[in-house]
Amino acid sequence: MNTRKPHILIIDDEPLLLKALDGILTDEGYKVFIAKSGPMGLEILSRETVDVTLIDMWMPEMDGLETLEIIRKEHPDTSTVLMSVHWNKQIALKAFQLGAASFIQKPITLDNLLETIEDIIIKRKERKIY
């Protein structure tokens, strides 16, 4: 039986949000990695096993969809969740076509965040990915 804590990578260019999510998810028992950009997140994924990646949609240098596309190609067993203040049907459709497991509307509520992650972890266990 796997007793490893689920590993979560948060990719967001907002330092206060990174710090808050890191603290919350660490307190909930997750192993958390943080990255301030898509390229930094991809570098972490190249050396760490990550179960769930939370990706901000709107970042300079590389946006969430670009980051998601690379993660799905290079790390297909990593589940991805996009986060954004601004959503529209085209963005949501593109995100799911690229393989996003879910999305979270900002501002993020604690209940929504934890429920989304827990649902993904349960599905991963059912598929024996975790």
Q: Can I get a quick summary?
A:
The chain has 130 residues and is α/β, with parallel strands linked by helices. The protein has helices at residues 15-27, 38-45, 64-74, 89-97, 110-126, and strands at residues 7-11, 31-35, 52-56, 79-84, 102-105. It contains five helices and five strands, in the order E-H-E-H-E-H-E-H-E-H.
What does this structure look like?
The chain is an alpha/beta fold. The chain has helices at residues 15-27, 38-45, 64-74, 89-97, 110-126, and strands at residues 7-11, 31-35, 52-56, 79-84, 102-105. It has a 5-stranded parallel beta sheet with strand order 2-1-3-4-5, with helices on both faces. Helix 2 (38-45) packs parallel to helix 3. The N and C termini lie close together (10 Å).
Task: Give the secondary structure arrangement, pairings included.
Blueprint: E1 7-11, H1 15-27, E2 31-35, H2 38-45, E3 52-56, H3 64-74, E4 79-84, H4 89-97, E5 102-105, H5 110-126
Parallel strand pairs: 1-2, 1-3, 3-4, 4-5
